[in-house]
Every structure is written in C-alpha cells, then in structure tokens.
Write a structure and sequence with these properties.
The chain is mainly β and about 260 residues long. It is built from 1 helix and 16 strands. It folds into 2 domains: about 1-30; about 30-255, Umud Fragment, subunit A, CATH 2.10.109. The termini are far apart. The relative contact order is 0.20.
C-alpha cells in the first residue's frame, strides 16, 4: 500500500508539472511573447539585457502573430490600432527579424527629420533638455557591444555620456530620446507620408537606430504594415547588465517590473 501511494504521489506530481507547462505554453502562445533586448537602439527607455513580455493581444492577431501554424486570414483581427508613442515589437517587412521601436507617426501623417528634430505634419516635436544619460564604457550583453558616446573618446570603465531630451509627440505623449552627435545620417531626411495600414517607427537612441527613416532597399525598416506588428511592450520584467543571465551580481533590480513609457 505504501509503495502504491508513493507511486500515485509521484504520478500526480508529474501530471501537475505537465499541466503547468501546457498552461504556460498556451498562455505564451496566445497572449504574451518573451523578448530580450539585444541592442542599444531604444536607450534609455530600454537597456541591453532588459527582458520583457510583449502583449500580443494589444493589436490583435495577424498572419505573423497568429498562435496557430496556419492562419486563414490576412490583416488583423480582434485588436486596436497602435497609438503614437507605443513601443512595439514587429516583424521586419523584408528579412523577417523581430525589431522593437517606438511608433511616432500613424497613417496619413507626414514625417521628417530636420537637424535632428522630428516634425510630424509640419510641426516640430517639443524637446526639453534633461541631464545627460550616463553609462559605463564597457562591453554590454551577450554580443559584447561597446556603447557610443557623445563625450568620446572614453577609456574602458569610464563614463560614457549621451545628450538626453524629453520629446513630446502630438497628443501629449512624452518619452526620453538620446543624441550622440549632430549631423548624423538620420538627422535630416526627406518628408515621408505614412501609407494606410502602416506606422512609422524610430528608436529612442536616435543616432544608433536602424528604423523607418531608412528605406528597406538599404537595410532599413521603412514603413511597417499593421499586420507585421507582433504586440506592444508595456513593462520590463527582468534586467541584467551581464553577458549571462545567471550572473546575479549584474542584475538591475531597480528595473524589475518597470513600466515602459
């Protein structure tokens, strides 16, 4: 009897673990997708080593975000349209890689960069100077990227600075942006008109981002179709400054569960 009870107890434990894994898998597939920040294009909103869950229900399902292996529809179903200021994860329209950027313009908007200032529908986004963003000049994340600095050259372990501003988009949405140098290739652009069912996205680290300012023909993102949106990033769950997540001494506990604005 004791052996049978022990066997039954082990079997119940196994079933519980299996059910928990199945529920977690279904939850992940239908509602949230994990995303690890691999580069510095969204500093200082998102840092290399931030881990977050993408809200897949924010904009509904498309053929790219559908939780099933075959989706018999095009466009999007069940979701809302993105808003200016949303931080979104999307599938690159050409190479299929997953990117994370901020929506700055919507269908019908005109967009242009002039001398590093964003213009939407002919109006300049208001910029408010903030204290510089500072980080240690050292290799970051598993890829070992070195940050770019506005106060370069900076020695290993020194303080790397970037100019920081609060940018206000039409409608009152504000967020932080960084500037490394004036006159970079994305600081002046033609005027773009965003097509229907598309958005225009940019990285908050403006001089270190490949985004809608650059056409797909040269490796840029171009306009992003609604159907390529995988979801909205709302909150950082976990963050590590090290090259391995298990290096607990590099964990940034002050960023755990931080809201993404």
């Amino acid at each position: 009897m004791a052996a049978t009870a022990k066997k039954d107890g082990v079997w119940e434990t196994v079933k519980t673990v299996v059910y928990a894994l199945l529920i977690a898998g279904i939850f992940r597939t239908l509602f949230f997708q994990p995303f690890w920040i691999p580069s510095g294009s969204m500093k200082d909103t998102l840092l290399i080593g931030d881990f977050l869950f993408v809200n897949k229900m924010a904009y509904g399902y498309s053929r790219h975000s559908c939780p099933f292996s075959m989706c018999p529809f095009s466009g999007r179903i069940f979701g809302d349209a993105p808003d200016r200021g949303d931080v979104v994860v999307f599938r690159h329209p050409v190479n299929g890689q997953d990117f994370i950027k901020r929506v700055v313009a919507l269908p019908g908007d005109t967009v242009q960069m002039r001398e590093g200032v964003l213009y939407i529908n002919g109006d300049a986004a208001q910029l408010t100077a903030e204290p510089p963003f500072e980080e240690t000049y050292d290799r970051q994340g598993p890829a070992g990227h070195l940050p770019r600095c506005s106060n370069a050259p900076v020695g290993q372990g020194g303080t790397c600075e970037k100019e920081r501003f609060t940018e206000a988009l039409p409608g009152g949405v504000t967020h932080s942006i960084l500037n490394i140098e004036d006159g970079s290739r994305g600081d002046n652009t033609p005027e773009f008109t965003v097509p229907d069912e598309h958005v225009f996205v940019m990285g908050d680290n403006r001089d270190n981002s490949v985004d809608s300012r650059f056409p797909q023909s040269i490796g840029g993102v171009g306009f992003v179709p609604f159907e390529n949106l995988l979801g909205r990033a709302d909150r950082v769950i976990f963050s590590s400054a090290g090259q391995r997540m298990v290096y607990f001494w590099t964990w940034r506990s002050d960023r755990f569960f931080e809201r993404i604005d």
